[in-house]
Write a structure and sequence with these properties.
The protein is built from 10 helices and 8 strands. It is globular. The longest helix has 13 residues. The protein has an 8-stranded parallel barrel, surrounded by 7 helices. With 208 residues, it is of the alpha/beta class.
Amino acid sequence: MRLQTAIDRVSLEEAIALAKQLDGKTDILEMGTSLVKDYGNLAIEKLRESLPQTTLLVDSKTIDEGAYEFNQAFRYGGDIITVMGAASLATLQACYEVAQKENKTMMIDLLEVADEKIEEIKNFPEAIYALHHSVDRKDQFDAASSVDAFHKKYPNINRLAIAGGIDLDQARILAEQGIIEVVIVGSKIAKAADPLKAVNEFMGAVHK
């Protein structure tokens, strides 16, 4: 299992400083959607320069103009780009084709995506499908149970990620479960009093 650390809702200067701190310490560093919206594609380049040892994910949440947005994000230095599962099948296909051509990765964000749509979009074998519990929701989220239920329903989707308030205990349980490829952690690392200590604890939990 790999650890993806998300940086969101900070200034670009703070994001760059944190990226430099976490380079080589986390498997994947996520440029959160707020950074994409606040600073645009040129900021991808600046984060890329700060991460010589770490994979960079750009959480663009593409929902239209898939080929253009993916080409741009890859051009500026992204390794993994996100597209919304709610996008049209044509958009997902366009994103996937660009990712395959560039030898990079598409992540499909399944936020609020119904089973019928998942059935329609389940045939992208190299894509990572991300189970995503919205930060705006207030109900409790059992990550391991959600993963288990999804895996039983869609056994042919082999590459899975999960996001949504994952703490250290949940990360350990997910690692023991052995289904998820990427666990996504945001504020528990990025907003911790000591991000380096926090990232080391999570890396210890996920790399068993």
